[in-house]
Amino acid sequence: MHIKVETLPNHRIAYVRQVGPYGPANTQTMEKLKKWAREKNLLTESAIILGIPQDNSETTLPEHCRYDACIVISKDYPIDDSVCEGELIGGKYVVFKVKHTTEDVQKAWTEIIPALQNSGYQMDHKPIIERYTGDMINHHFCEICVPVIIKES
Questions:
Q1: Which of 29, 89, 111, 134 could cross-link 18 (Cys pair, CB 3.0–4.6 Å)?
Q2: Which domains does the chain have, with CATH numbers?
Q3: pLDDT tens-digit readout, 52-79
Q4: 3-state DSSP helix/strand/coil percent for the chain, to nearest 5?
């Protein structure tokens, strides 16, 4: 698992939201977003796709969990009623690049918190982001971006 620290900029996003238990419905939501993006010719090699679970499934009832499938769009891109518009607030993130397989992503989740604790970072109270670009998708990778606060020594 490759790890780096990155400052993400604020991004304007178009997104589709799914409310309910995390799982297969997240994949369906992402496919709905990709279909919209493909129809708008936005799904290019340089496109940035984000999967954002908005709630902690350990503290939020499954039926209230929100998952947003997003694509970064330009400030002036017109969107229609089939998607929502929002803003991703940037900041410092520890980025974990992992193979995009169920096993590798699950393994990464078990290693992320200990890796953060050992590196002197503290999680910030923003959602964790799964980030994909066209090139990463083609090579079966994704990035798990964890918002952090740098602890002062």
A1: 29
A2: 2-150 (3.20.80.10)
A3: 999 988 899 999 999 999 999 999 999 9
A4: 25, 40, 30
